[in-house]
């Protein structure tokens, strides 16, 4: 059997049930440890620790499938894991037909992301196979998804840079069923959104912000809203439905803004209440400040500024700048929703950065709530890396 033996002391994280084994912690490998192959993980003294998927090109050299020595890694395992993931979402997700069905390590399927748009025969499953292990078991996983959900349509969006760190090529295309419907739409808390599965960000829609979009909608009534890095208008549409007086939205993607404007029409909202700016957010915020513009509610939901730990300092400067100017553009009593999706930035560091921005803006603000992804993005207690999205809701003190 393929086996990797750890260096003395390197078993501690696995005993805490953390699912990653780093290359620096491995003493020896035995057998044909090819990409995606199942390996037995043993401590230096020979004790069984786990069964894992081997990835020879990655610094995360193996990802755990199971800590149970008697549990086979076979087709049945993937069927059980997919079934469990689906049962969990059916219990916890309401008022939306856009769901994160599988969230990698949190569903004990490390490296696998699956979003489910719609339902049953007319639905669309979109997958990202981001590790050598799930790439190796792709066929079994697709079969399990189709069988358990009853959805015949599976599309692959394995085009994230993380695959290259696994030694995998970037791949997109149909895995089962039909091509994605170019007019595919989903409904979330009463708001309809078009989803561009083939060309959109990630799998076409930011499912992780569902609960936060609802909160924006709940607080938007009568307010002048600014949504930065708006993409296809998720927060903007929620604010319009919530009764915002006006919504100004900024993004550097003209194609995304076209979809956003189409979402206004799709929902029957008054287009006069929505302004879409194809522009650089940093530049636009500085221009608004120079013009003396003010808003009652601002959303800052930027892309990942820190893809890895080596980018933290640069990212911190960017987060501080947009939050500083954002606070300056906020009227007294106004609300700021600010987010980071950089896994390398902890909630504690993010809050420290935002607090510094508030101070430099010569303002006072209350932190009303810490924000995170929805319940379809659960975090394993032993795997804090699963909490990549973090946010704060602040009120500017009058």
UniProtKB/TrEMBL annotation:
GO terms for biological process: methylation; rRNA processing. PANTHER family: RIBOSOMAL RNA LARGE SUBUNIT METHYLTRANSFERASE (PTHR42873), S-ADENOSYLMETHIONINE-DEPENDENT METHYLTRANSFERASE DOMAIN-CONTAINING PROTEIN (PTHR42873:SF1). Keywords: Cytoplasm, Methyltransferase, RNA-binding, rRNA processing, S-adenosyl-L-methionine, Transferase. Its main location: cytoplasm. This is Putative S-adenosyl-L-methionine-dependent methyltransferase. It comes from the Bacteria. Belongs to the methyltransferase superfamily. RlmI family.
